[in-house]
Specification:
Two copies of one chain form a homodimer. The first copy, chain A, has 13 helices and 23 strands. The first copy, chain A, is of the alpha+beta class and 646 residues long. The interface between A and B is large, with 67 and 67 residues.
Chain lengths: 646, 646
């Protein structure tokens, strides 16, 4: 296919990731407009509630005033907030930039300009910008690289500036602040500077993308230097139980077998390394990241897509260490996993990365915010043993774990990370290729964008997904000549069917491809099977042996104690996997029984039949709800994996 | 039975616990002499190696010199060691005191006197004694009650003094130091003093026992005050993830349902509370502790007797949260559990407490030291996923977890705790009653002690226990008239048999009782069944579902990767529970198979048969070793609970 370029609009650059190479161009936020549905609802709540909620909390806690105090010379070692609180401000600024870009909302623009002014005033003349170090009796700059988070904060500043540069242009004051900060980092940590590295990766991804946004090779090179500098035991980790692996500083990125240590750190690093690999054409580095993704997804990832198995060090566990109850699937790690998978999809076109993105978006990202957008889950376990109490709405929660969403946290990385991710959801949902378009994530809306060959393709997507499995793609703006329209068929969707041009054909997991000239108004229908299904774990996952879970479409389901008969204990629920699960609206019913709550004096014994199953109830229906909506009816015990009746 | 008192020696007071009330008097260390066997070997290694090993490390690291520096006025905030390192010195001193008392070894006496001099010189005129606070630029006394461990250290000083008072008399300088320290605590924290309490319980048990040893009611009263003062949220726990429950300061002792929070803290507190309950006749408090023991043993205790399910906060988990791999069965928590169970046995006579002591001694305490007594396990998981590397013999280990024993730790509470426990093993093994004697823990040796009625009973125990189940009790010194000789029949010993006076009878779990006049030279034989047996977990323990373990007598067994065929992965071993386990010396053989090491790209799927079991090997014999001896052949992966072939 070869078509002369037409007078079409240039591709949008309004997107979080914009690689210079690769056959897949991410669509811009303005090229995918959501209509009412699952993600539109969450994006709207983010717009209407979460953005202001985050700003209010950070104002109340003094995290914003920290910038004013540096500007006024009144800060000191008593500064409120953790050393990384600046980064929360930057993540909110990134969210506001995407919000304004996507919607044109002048309120978001004003809020962002106001924040930019306060941040800019705190910047030192040489570009250094941090409210926790280097001013008024504080510890000196870079005096605690291992735990001080200075370059981490700067990385988030750069990501905010990327969003602003791509939505308001490179002359914006925020972009100028970020440019000065990036220049400072390059000078301070370049080949002639300090050979140190930050305990929390993030500067890599920030530098690489700002380099792409501004066409500044030095930033990309500094990102490359940081990626290569890690893995040589510089960060000893004497203050964390897992030591150097906590920081991924035990093994160089290109040699590591799997992700390990602190999950958010590992995944932010991988995202930055993917950017470096793509921009520098480093096939070895890219292959290493693909291997790490494969190993981690096969052996260290929860059913929800959640990553992290240890509260201690908020870290990955060993292979097969996937406890449902003590899972530590930090919302930020889910977001970081999407960041990594998205980069690997763009670099390779492999559908598996988009599959994991969908799983993670629906079951890690979507579970975090409350329906009103003003409270959040943080650790996202797959099993909450006790309901716990109601949250304190007036104080930041000191804990990551609880059976209820909290309005804010002492370590409050997740709310602002959600805000920027929901504001830019479209940036991870579809791609344009040389002669076509790929729909990766399904939501009602319109998708319209220039192809690589310069032609434009526009479609309207009608769907009730994920409640309903029918995705109807109506062609609204067909280009002349044949195009390639690809619809992702998720790996769970065995038996999917594609209807187009009067024909119906099976659509195997991967991509359903329509390659022909399209006709305006024609409808292409993908029917994904979203009946509930039982899922079993690999027999080597000790924590899940003898259990099943229920999934429906991309959604993981769970049982909640509020749905049990009075007096029954969620620990005692067992299900019968020989009776197929039955859908009931957005819920699923399973046949099972409830064990009595008594316990033997000693819980280990000789005969398999000596357990309390002897006294189990008659058949009981277990009612399951989508995991993403658990605890919306108040504190509750919950479990995704349900023991099988024996 | 009523006998006139005879001219017998008074009961020994050479014992760690000496309640004023209750029908069971613990035997003194000099009333139970070990002959070669399991515990004699460990006690001898403690004598020959561990005591000097501990002193050498503490000298090398400056933990001993901390006392000199306070005495010389040269200490400061740069003092080496954690704030609780004084307590390690005191635990070693306690060990030396018991050692000297038990053996009369002048070397132990000299070592203890030398340490006492150094410690005594650091005591302030008002009795305060701590090398981390209150001197030369250090933080002031009691300025961080939550985490400073000052009263915790003092508690260990008092326990050391108890050992010395009961083996060398109350005039010993160490006892005088402790008396001054206890007087200071009573003044500083009594009704008219600070109403604070220490973040780490231990002062309670120290004050109560020193009160008993010296007949000083004030100390007991202060212990009571500390017990009652806890549970009202004074310790907020803002620096620990679990908050107030970490310190057991969320609920008063007499109201709590189960042990929770930091395991060693919970158990030391319970031990002190038991002392208070017994001495003050507080039946309600005692009943509360019994309920907590029951709940915790039924739902929060590992097969080994180990307590602790979370690395984070080194804490108990929720009910049924008992992960084999992330078990945190700290050696010190095992010792503390023995301390609690022993006090509850003495108060109630209930055999279940002695059962748990046996399980814990063989499978938590005995696993910790290496055969040479110079390296130690700390966290004692029931599943080590990766073998890991060899320990660094020259530096303290910064980690509690590893597949090999380490010579010393940065936080090195366990080695000295083992030293004092092994030196006083006899103090937890038997009791004398009004008219008889009870053998609770079996080891070859001689037991001889006055009964409550003043008569003396002496027996000689011959046994190869736990390798062999035959325990032969030869009567060497029968008193005139009938006596009650009780032999504990462990709860696992179904089918035990007692042979005495020419008769053989079944001996059900509990106590086998011989109540009659004994004859010099006669033998009473208890035959305990020590063939290997399969054990299954309560179905509500998610982490163990679908697994079996092997036990033999009191010993828990485990599989080690060093015993697998080359290339096989311990994660892939599955066993066939329908084939009975076979004993082979001190090992046990199980029939099973090995799954191939491959993994599917995504470890969750639809069909039960789609797992890698499809490619499992032909029958393989799994060779199991006693858990207490794992990793004695170098670093190895290990697991106690083995998945069942499905």
């Amino acid at each position: 296919m070869n078509h002369p370029p037409e007078a079409a609009a240039p591709p949008s650059r309004m997107r979080p990731v914009d690689p210079a190479r690769g056959g897949h161009r991410p669509l811009g936020l303005d090229e995918y407009t959501l209509a009412p549905g699952f993600w539109e609802e969450r994006q709207r709540t983010n717009t209407d509630a979460t953005l202001a909620h985050c700003e209010e909390w950070m104002e109340r806690l003094g995290w914003l005033a920290n910038f004013d105090r540096v500007a006024e010379g009144t800060t000191g070692p008593d500064r409120p907030g953790w050393c990384f609180s600046d980064s929360e401000v930057y993540k909110l600024m990134e969210a506001l930039a995407w919000e304004h870009g996507r919607t044109g909302d002048p309120g978001a623009d004003t809020a962002l300009r106001r924040l930019t002014e306060r941040v800019a005033r705190a910047q030192d003349p040489d570009g250094y910008l941090n409210t926790c170090y280097g001013h008024g009796g504080q510890e000196p700059r870079y005096s605690d690289l291992e735990h001080g988070h200075e370059l981490y904060c700067t990385g988030h500043l750069l990501q905010a500036a990327v969003a602003r540069a791509r939505t308001a242009g490179p002359a914006d004051p925020l972009v100028q602040v970020a440019r000065r900060a990036a220049d400072h980092v390059c000078a301070a940590f370049g080949p002639d500077g300090s050979q140190g590295l930050c305990g929390h990766p993030e500067i890599e991804v920030g530098l690489a993308e700002l380099g792409r946004a501004l066409g500044e090779e030095r930033y990309l090179e500094q990102a490359r230097i940081f990626v290569e500098r890690r893995g040589h035991g510089t960060l000893r980790g004497e203050r964390v139980p897992s030591g150097s692996p906590y920081f991924q500083d035990d093994v160089p990125v290109r040699e590591a077998r799997a992700w390990r240590g602190h999950a958010v750190r590992a995944l932010y690093l991988a995202a930055g390394a993917a950017d470096v690999a793509v921009e520098t054409g480093d096939a070895g580095l890219l292959a290493a990241l693909e291997r790490q993704w494969e190993h981690t997804v096969a052996r260290r990832t929860h059913l929800t897509g959640g990553m992290g198995s240890r509260h201690q060090d908020e870290g990955f566990g060993e292979d097969w260490e996937l406890p449902a109850d003590r899972a530590y699937c930090e919302t930020c790690a889910g977001i970081a996993s999407v960041m990594v998978s998205w980069r690997l999809y763009l670099a390779t076109g492999d559908v598996r990365y988009a599959d994991l993105i969908e799983r993670t978006l629906f079951n890690v990202v979507a579970v975090s915010p409350s329906t009103d957008g003003r409270a959040f889950f943080y650790a996202n376990p797959l099993h909450q043993r006790t309901a716990g109490g109601a949250p304190d709405g007036e104080a930041p929660s000191p804990r990551a774990e609880s059976g209820v969403r909290a309005p804010w946290f002492d370590v409050s990385c997740c709310p602002t990370n959600l805000a920027r991710t929901l504001a830019s959801w479209q940036g991870y949902a579809a791609s344009a290729e040389e002669h076509g378009l790929t729909l990766l994530q399904y939501a009602a809306g319109t998708v319209r964008g220039p192809l690589g060959d310069g032609r434009t393709l526009g479609v309207e997507v009608a769907t009730g997904y994920p409640d309903d499995g029918l995705v109807t793609v109506r062609v609204t703006e067909p280009p002349p000549g044949p195009v390639v329209l690809r619809l992702r068929v998720p790996s769970w969707a065995r038996g999917a069917v594609l209807e187009e041009a009067g024909r119906t054909r099976e659509a195997a997991p991967g991509f359903a491809v329509v390659e022909r000239e399209l006709v305006r108004g024609e409808e292409i229908r993908l029917r994904l099977p979203v009946e509930p299904r039982l899922t079993r774990p690999d027999p080597r996952i000790d924590a899940l042996r003898g259990c099943v879970a229920v999934e429906r479409g991309p959604l993981v389901y769970c049982a909640e104690s509020v749905d049990l008969p009075a007096g029954a204990d969620l620990d005692g629920v067992v299900v019968d996997p020989t009776v197929p699960p039955v859908r009931d609206g957005d819920r699923v019913r399973l046949s099972g029984a409830v064990l009595p709550p008594d316990a033997a004096p000693w819980p280990y014994g000789a005969a398999p039949g000596q357990g309390p199953e002897q006294g189990k109830s008659g058949p009981v229906e277990a009612v399951l709800t989508p995991y993403h909506s658990w605890a919306e009816r108040g504190p509750t015990a919950m479990r995704v994996w349900l023991p099988v009746l024996s």
